[in-house]
Amino acid sequence: MYELAKGALFRLDAERAHDLVLGGLAGAGRSVLARRALAGSYALHDPRLRVEAFGLSFANPLGVAAGLDKRAVAVPAFGAMGFGSVEVGSVTALAQPGNPKPRLFRLPEDEALINRMGFNNDGADVVTARLARLRGSLQGGETLPVVGVNVGKSRVVEIEQAADDYRRSLTSVWPVADYVVINVSSPNTPGLRSLQESEGLGRVL
Q1: What are the pLDDT digits (tens) for 15-27?
Q2: Read out DSSP for the chain?
Q3: Which of 39, 42, 146, 157 is most exposed by smallest CB count within 10 Å?
Q4: Is the pTM of this model over 0.90?
Q5: Which residue among the candidates 90, 169, 186, 194 is catalytic per the annotation?
């Protein structure tokens, strides 16, 4: 079935295919029956896989990395599928569209993608509200997996004001995040990687 779906999706633009699948997972995550079907088909519950780290308890060590669900729309579906954690984002204090399209490119021979998305996201406050609603929508003892929020710098904010920009995002997402990642590595945000230097990183941290 995967090969059939892959063939159909590869006829679409890479970002369109990504959005289509993520939208389907978001819809499935809103349905109790769909979540149960995903769990029955994909989840593996084995106490030997449990990981205790950073004061958190992960059902297993396999997690969804940031960049897949930037807007935090499909967290319940990923949890139902058995992932031990889901890291959403990157999110920025200010909503932003990201880089001009096309910005996601397939390399089929390498089974890889080139990602030049550019921190496209709905903004920290919207993502926070969405995660709060998702937590409140679960039923019958259901829980979300461990949820991380990856925080980046808003593109329009000057690098000198980066610490304040990160602080605004952190203040917003803190109540709904099990852990937070500070992203200073994207090559798609001008000047961001200068924050990897000790002085800039020190100000942010």
Answers
A1: 999 999 999 999 9
A2: -HHHHHHHHTTS-HHHHHHHHHHHHHHHHT-HHHHHHHHHHH----GGG-EEETTEEESSS-EEPTTSSTTS-SHHHHHHTT-SEEEEEEE-SS-B--SPSP-EEEEGGGTEEEE---S-BS-HHHHHHHHHHHHHH--TT----EEEEEE---TTS-GGGHHHHHHHHHHHHGGG-SEEEE----TTSTTGGGGGSHHHHHHH-
A3: 42
A4: yes
A5: 186
